[in-house]
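Technical note accompanying the year-one report. For the benefit of new consortium partners, we illustrate the data format agreed upon in the data management plan: each record pairs a sequence with a structure-token string. No post-processing was applied to the example shown here.
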Amino acid sequence: MCGFCGFVSSNNQKDQNISILKKMNNALSHRGPDDEGYHSEDNIFLAHRRLSILDLSKRSSQPFKSNDKNLILLFNGEIYNYLELKKELKDKNYKFNTTSDTEVLLACYEIWDIKMLNKIKGMFSFSIIDLKKNIIFSARDHFGQKPFYYYSDKQNFIFSSELRSLLKNPEIPKKLDYDNTISYLHYDAFVGDTTPIQQCKKLLPSEYLIYDIKNKTITKNKYWSINLKRNFNDENKINLKIDELLKTSVKQHLRSDVPVAIYLSGGIDSTSLASIAKKELKFDNLTAFNLKFNDPTFDEDEKANFSSDVLGIKLITHNVSNDESIKKSLLLIDELDEPLSDPGYLAVGMIAEFVKENNFKVVISGDGGDELFGGYEPFLKLNYYKIIKKFPILKKIINIFNKASKDSFDYMGFNYKLKVFEKGLLSNDDFYNSRWLSSYLEEDIKRLITSDIFKKSVFSEKKSIYWFIKKIFLETKIEDDKDKLFLQFQRHYLPNLICSHTDKANMNFSIEARSPFLDKDLFDFVNNVKHELLYENNKAKKYLRNYLKKNNLKKIYDSKKKGFTVPIAKWLKTSLKSDLLETLNEKNIKKLNFINYDYVKKLVEEHITGKQNNYKKIWTLFVLIKWINKNNIEC
């Protein structure tokens, strides 16, 4: 796990370019505190920060060059099947000089060229400078676990592992992209290839890019995609195959030359992974970490203790006080390289810092389990949604109840959940889940954004705020309602929020978070399993629940889904109130020149007086404005 950056310069000022490169690389120091490396070749400038996990020696440092010096590699992440690939390459008489996956990755390109992407499994972003072909070949992993940002114009190609590093290059104007920002207000993240800065983009998950250095052109293509076919219905064969695939993935994810930890919430996903590692793979050197908050509605401490006792894994729990939570949350917001309003980022950041304090670099995470096995609440809400659509009187009853009831500020309290559910009923279309997940609906955005800016945006006439979900549906042509949910969570929620917050939060503290559920072979297989075999008695994750039951973990088997998050709704009324009022004050809002202050004032007043839980709208805006102000972005 590392960070890298580079650019192809349009000038011959070598000293100046090296100075810029160092500033870009210094902005990535948290991603790789163990080593740094630089290389320049004509007008190409490259830099790398290393977090040493495999082959801790200097011989695996980057930029990493091929034996003939014609290939130079910058790589962030891990290739989990590197040992299997290394054996295959040795059979082709390839000679290795290190024990790292870095050398294996470059060897794959030497032997298989771009087709290497069909061979490698892992979380990665990389750039290979091919001096013979005069190209830069870059790619991002299947699920978007590792980031890749870039900027291009007629003269420049600039790339980095983080946007904050990219913006250290003076060739990039720091101008806010209004269209992308309006989209962020709905999705809580800059989705797909979008960023908050004009002309800055991200590579998509499972996408590669070729930059022609001479002609200054970019070619992009996808090398893999998530598909749902639902052809498999033999439950015994299915269970055996999932056993095999998941065990293989966990085994590969445990490969490390440094100690490995695990985030153990006590939920179904993390407990299943811990059980496979300890009981089946006999991985004894595993330490579990957990957070305990003062608010009992956010705690899973009891279940984590139960799991660790049954499995015989050492569990270290950090009790987080309210004051500590607030202080750490504000620092984490300050460290964002781009706005991301998913509260999970804060919870993961707090536990990542705790893991670092205990001298670990690698941790196993349960990311992907919910997306793969349909564990999120909307999968269960879908049936109720369909019934209510058939009987409009039920919709009226919900509306009357919501108007009469007091809003809840607890974690997913019933009154709050019912009000969120009603958002999905506002229109008779396919975007009910996007409304359930969103901060701002289309009509909210029209109130929030000043009329002159909104009229200039693509959303005034040409484009729907649901553009990203529409794109998913158009690309896949799936008709089944449940599979449409799976696609939204796997192709939107997973890369844009889950993988993003996991990478940003962990890398702030130089922690490599690995997610065994995010295995392309596992996804290819489970996405072909019939729906009815994924659920039992209206409970998701049938396979994982049965696995836990077989392994004396029935208490976890019966668990309800509980997200790893923090009580922001309450904080905004209490401990964060002064920061909220300072950040969203009239002066701050009006100087941005695109936000309607009167609407913001109403949202804040409703929330802090307890009239309405507006935490998602407020937090999304709070994070955005903090980021704009800190980075001096031109609005």
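Partners are asked to follow this layout when depositing records. The longest helix spans residues 481-507.
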